[in-house]
Amino acid sequence: MFEKKYSMTQEENVFWAKRNLVDYIWKSANLEGIGVTFPETQTIVEGISVQGKSIDDINSIVQLKHGWQMVFGTIDAPLDLDSIKKLHLIIGRTSSVPVQNKVEEAISSILSSDREWTERALDLMLYLTKSQLFYDGNKRIAMLAANKLLIQHGCGVLSVSQDRLEKFFTLLVSYYEDDTRAEELKEFLYNECLDGFKSMK
After folding, report:
1. CB count in 10 Å sphere of residue 74
2. How big is the CA angle at 178 (ends 172 and 183), to the nearest 5 degrees?
3. Which of 28, 93, 114, 159 has the fewest C-beta atoms lying within 10 Å of its C-beta?
4. Closest by alpha carbon to 94, among 135, 141, 132?
5. Which residues contact 176 (CB under 8 A, 6 or more apart)?
6. Distance (Å, rounded) from C-alpha 13 to C-alpha 155?
7. Mean pLDDT, consecutive 10-residue segments, the chain of 201 residues?
8. pTM of this prediction?
């Protein structure tokens, strides 16, 4: 059901992500309730301060930029709990991974499944978002980790646009309350939040 949607090489996927980086950072910020416009995000990413924005909001944008830089800089490295924790050190300000062995097993199970890489990335995002491994930044980290997996295998980039936020949060809350709603959330992410070029269809 969640077959590969795009036919890009890793190099092409990295190029696509870098080309649209400000947009992805802006969407991730909005996902976490950080009220910035696209032009403000672009200004902050370029290293210029924006009047009227809190230090915390500006830092969150800068941290997302550094998180993406880490994804690009380690694109050939395997994704595991240690790399996800390192990503959190850049994006978040706290760290707490309960029952580490259980988390490692769950991540390993997702990554080694026989599902297509697009679906594995979606499964990873859902697991990391719901598990709340850290005290803050879980959605940002889940999205970045999923995107690293997608980009590694030329499967596109996952991001939630402003006009889809309400639907995303509705489906996410339903999934938090009932694991059987996972497929509905994955369908939404696959159909409405995954972009790239060289479509398989």
Report:
1. 15
2. 65
3. 114
4. 135
5. 130
6. 7
7. 90 97 95 91 94 91 96 95 89 66 91 96 96 86 96 97 95 96 97 89 62
8. 0.93
